[in-house]
Amino acid sequence: MNVGSKDFTPTTDLLAGSPKMMYTYFLLSECAKYLDAMKQPRDINVDTTTNSLLAFCPNTQKRDKFWQDYIDRKKTKDSAVTASILTIGDFQAYLSEILEFTEKAHGAF
Amino acid sequence: MVHVFNSRNVKDMDDATKEQILAADVPLSVYTDCITDLGPKNRSAMGRFANICSAIISKGLPLPPSPFIEFVVKRTTGKSRQDFTGTLDGKKGVGKSYSTGYLQGRYAIEIADQWGQDPKDYFSIENCALLEDTDGITKILDEAEKYQAIMIDDASVALGSRDFATQKNKNLNKIMTVCRTKRWFVMQNAPMSSHIDLQERELMDMSAHVYKSFHEAGFNLIKINSVNSVFRAGKKKVFEQRFTFYDQKIDYFCAYSPDILDPFKGFIAKYDKQREEAANRLISEVTGAEHERKNPVDKRAEKLREFMEKHGQTIKDMMEEGKSFRAICRKTGLTDAMVNKIIPQMGLSR
Fold first, then answer.
1. Distance (Å, rounded) from C-alpha B167 to C-alpha B175?
2. Comparing C-alpha atoms, which of B275, B284, B257, B270 is closest to residue B130?
3. What is this model's ipTM?
4. Is any Cβ of chain B less than 8 angstroms from the Cβ of A39?
5. Would A6 be classed as within a structural domain?
6. Contact flag B248-A104 (C-beta cutoff 8 Å)
7. Is B37 on the interface with A (CB under 8 A)?
8. Which of A50, A89, B239, B335 is the most core-located residue (most Cβ within 10 A)?
9. CA B160 from chain center: how many Å?
């Protein structure tokens, strides 16, 4: 990666990173693409986009649950885009927990 | 009177105590969970813990259970016949000794609670080696009974890394290597743990550091790591990890003054007095030795002075009586050369 350049291509650096770092970077790039796509939802198939992102959920049971939540929300919200965004939000919250994006401190006496 | 909770009796906490704790803005989970959740691990985490520690001491709340102390007691009293040793380092005056005294005081309370005895049976000022040389420490270790908490204060004095090959260090290392069956809880203090003999450090189970002092509030925050030194493939590796209790890694431990523990009230006054005496003694010994090193006493001159004191008067009397030189030598048992030296020293002439 050229530090002075604005062209941020850290792929080679990440190849030397931990699996957690590489997974996080990959997922965040996919989320950026997902958000771009959601700005023009008419051009895409929301079901496929949501499902392809959920496919990277490391827990298969959770993945199925998220998909089921999306289906249920689509019926209640009458909007596939809203249901998709809410479901991906839950997915991110789950990832934040299992990947320990927020480390906690503990004290004892 | 400050009540000390442990993980067994905290379940029986009465409602009045619960209300008192909540009124002081201390989360009840500090007591019930035995560890304190400090939220996100950022710079304010230490501040949040310090606020809780400060509230506990300022409002006179009971002391929460200590998972670390319970772990140490379980180890020294368990079936595996192990002891527990550790170092605590920190700059001069940060409160290493007070923190060690608190930890060992709580150890004594915990072990006494389990066996229904007096905490003073397990820790007292007599168990503290204050600036002792090796002889002093070995004497304390020789007299200490099983399951005692022993504090070796300023361990760099007796177990200095610069004295690594001396017989005294070797002897103390031997004791510390084989003392496992005594089931002691030994803590060694030093400004830096590297000041302690390397072999001694490699025997340690834990390494602690005074991370932040809150002298005004009356407590210290310390970091405690377990230490595992292994020798593999010709290289020594030291693994230091935070202690994990209740599936959580503990970042900070709180240590108050031992005086807040009821059985050890007045400990600090006794400690300070003995520490000052020990410091004065050590300084006198070192300066005396240094003076002698700079002004070495001539052994010949010392011998001459000794003979003058013993035989001077006899020689003088015999000289005045006009006795012969040979007679003086025969009477005193001294050689000709020595008598020849003594005579001018006494202002006499042959």
1. 12
2. B275
3. 0.77
4. no
5. no
6. yes
7. yes
8. A50
9. 13
At the top level of CATH, the class of B66-287 is alpha beta
| B33 Ramachandran zone, left/alpha/beta (phi>0; psi -120 to 50) | alpha
Measured CA to CA, the distance from residue B100 to residue B267 in angstroms comes to 12
* A104 reaches B (C-beta below 8 A): yes
Question: What's the pTM value of the predicted model, to 2 decimals?
Answer: 0.73
The three-state DSSP-derived secondary structure of B257-319 is CHHHCHHHCCHHHHHHHHHHHHHHHHHHHHHHHHHHHHCCCCHHHHHHHHHHHHHHHHHHHHH
Domain-located, residue A84:
yes
Task: Kindly report, residue by residue over B241-278, the tens digit of the pLDDT.
Answer: 999 999 999 999 999 999 999 999 999 999 888 888 88
CA distance B34 to chain A (A): 7
Lowest-pLDDT range of A17-31, A49-63, B98-112, B313-327: A17-31
Tell me the one-letter amino acid at A77: K
Per the structure, the count of domains in chain A is 1
Tokens of A17: 């990173």
What residues make up the domain containing A74? 11-98
What CA–CA distances, in Å, run from B342 to A36, B303, B305, B324, B350? 109, 11, 9, 15, 11
Q: Would the CB atoms of A107 and B252 count as touching at under 8 Å?
A: yes
Whether residue B61 has pLDDT greater than 80: yes
CA–CA separation, B255 vs B48, rounded Å?
Answer: 16
Domain assignment of residue A4, yes or no: no
CA distance B75 to B82: 6
- Cα–Cα distance, B208 to B114 (Å, whole number): 26
Report whether B22 contacts B28 (CB < 8 A).
yes
Q: How many CB pairs under 8 A join A and B?
A: 59
Q: Beta partners for B268? A: none
Of the candidates B35, B42, B45, the beta carbon closest to that of A108 is on B35
The closest CB to that of A109, out of B248, B249, B254, belongs to B254
- Note the pLDDT tens digit of each residue in A63-107: 999 999 999 998 887 788 899 999 999 998 898 888 877 788 999
Distance in Å, alpha carbon of B67 to nearest chain A alpha carbon:
7
Taking the domains of chain B in order of start, what are their residue ranges? 1-63, 66-287, 299-345
